[in-house]
Amino acid sequence: xxxxxxxxxxxxxxxxxxxxxxxxxxxxxxxxxxxxxxxxxxxxxxxxxxxxxxxxxxxxxxxxxxxxxxxxxxxxxxxxxxxxxxxxxxxxxxxxxxxxxxxxxxxxxxxxxxxxxxxxxxxxxxxxxxxxxxxxxxxxxxxxxxxxxxxxxxxxxxxxxxxxxxxxxxxxxxxxxxxxxxx
Length: 183
Fold this sequence. Notes:
The relative contact order is 0.17. By secondary structure, the chain is mainly beta. The protein has one domain (22-182): Porin, CATH 2.40.160. The protein has an eight-stranded antiparallel beta barrel. It has two helices and nine strands; from the N terminus they run αβαββββββββ. 11% of the residues lie in helices and 65% in strands. It has helices at residues 2-18, 29-32; strands at residues 23-28, 38-45, 50-59, 62-65, 68-83, 91-106, 113-130, 135-153, 161-182.
């Protein structure tokens, strides 16, 4: 079994090395301004004009300001495709994806909090600046829409439910200023 695992790992590494600059890993610096949301995105170019993308965001943090706690906890998972008219990882791009988000937000404008799940899809577009052969700067915007199930509470800790519901939504998404390392 060890030999099979080592052989598979060797084949994967040699395949990645043989196709230079077809893999990127990036992080969006604007997400860190959203209450410290940790994020990462990985992309693999499988054709001259196409790449497959997988991303995640995670925020477990709360910020206490006296009696009022502010937070925007979330975990988000997305997978999709990007089309590059010129060549992957350079120039203009547009993409589509499917996405799931578990969220818990509140305390920003009022003591009320909301938690729930969102499922949906989105579209985005942007431009990638090649800073060096292995470092890019990506800028872009996107929107996503889908279905949301949520519960609202009167305050962060009291547990008194003020509402529950299901609805369709449209939200901005992927406001990007990210740095990508290309392999």
